[in-house]
Protein: pantothenate kinase
Organism: Nyssa sinensis
Amino acid sequence: MEKDGIRENLDEKDSNIMLPKPSLDEFSHLSLDIGGSLIKVVYFSSNSNCLVDDNGMRSPEDSLEVSNSNSNWPFLSGRLHFAKFETSKINDCLEFISSKQLHYCGSRHHEAPAGDKNVIKATGGGAYKFADLFKEKLGVSLDKVDEMDCLVAGANFLLKAVHPEAFTYMDGQKGYVQIDHNDLYPYLLVNIGSGVSMIKVDGDGKFERVSGTSVGGGTFWGLGRLLTKCKSFDELLKLSHQGNNRVIDMLVGDIYGGMDYSKIGLSSTAIASSFGKAVSENKELEDYRPEDVSRSLLRMISNNIGQISYLNALRFGLKRIFFGGFFIRSHAYTMDTISVAVHFWSKGEAKAMFLRHEGFLGALGAFMSYEKHDLEDLIAH
Ligand SMILES: Nc1ncnc2c1ncn2[C@@H]1O[C@H](COP(=O)(O)OP(=O)(O)O)[C@@H](O)[C@H]1O
Ligand SMILES: CC(C)(COP(=O)(O)O)[C@@H](O)C(=O)NCCC(=O)O
């Protein structure tokens, strides 16, 4: 669902039809991805009709049906649920888990001492940082799963099992991509979270993290918050809709008296220097509209990530680049900028693609790391 170019949160409570709350024991296998900015939660309900969020409201986009045909576990059939919380508000997440009794939805270690029986699969740095807190507040142990392993497992699962999952975005047009399972690898996975990881994926569990950059989603939100005084990420993103980056960015035409620099392939409207105009004008931050600042920042960061991604794809001869992570938020301008950067630098050779479940790759990968016997054991309970 798109609203002003921003796809609504997968966990947003926007919808309408009241359904009875499911009984708690319908839920199973909770997994977590505790990142630098956001905590992503995935859990399963065996009742595939169970489209209910924590307000008891029917929510069409916060879940995904898993059937025998698309699951890695043919005995599993039901629905995957998705939710997210700001990492700085981890107590909200703990309350959510507790209210749904999801902390009983891990694997059970029968032989373990009483306090260590419930074990939840968790990835991301927060699985280390907050392990004691989960133990203290919910009495669960976090079974730590490697973040890169999880990102790749989540991406491979979505690309193979969910259709439509991947799409291109150019000039305001979304085009869903049919994935040929026999021709999926190799590809470059670019996960834009707080920071950015670039992973060359060669198969199931076969990958190498080939690059990364610290200029990522945390940079956009952090710098943007300081420069615009916005109170939320979505507010900052929304501001960028009304902004004009040319007010702050120095264009080729600004330097070349309105002309293209065609000899090196630069049009007069290409950005020569992000934020470059702010140097030559006798203005203070207050003299710029927050809308324009937000737009320039979003463009600078998206462009930079698109360019570094392309260079890594070129390094390894990869034609397909899939972008994930919550920085993207299915935001039109972000996707357009990344796509244009990849298209421009690769002269149309490489393709940027986006994923519908962009921010949940790691949490899905952690979910998939439950052993088959854990899942069967849970179902038996
Ligand atoms: N509600 C939100 N609050 C904070 N950041 C958000 C929000 N929605 C999207 N973002 C963006 O997503 C980024 C985090 O993406 P994510 O994939 O969850 O990474 P991480 O695992 O590092 O938390 C943030 O840095 C920010 O750019
Ligand atoms: C350290 C991280 C893997 C953590 O993941 P995140 O919480 O940002 O999703 C990521 O922030 C990252 O890859 N940063 C870039 C570091 C670098 O290559 O310079």
Notes: Residues 1-24, 50-61 have pLDDT under 50 and may be disordered. DSSP finds twelve helices and 18 strands in the chain.
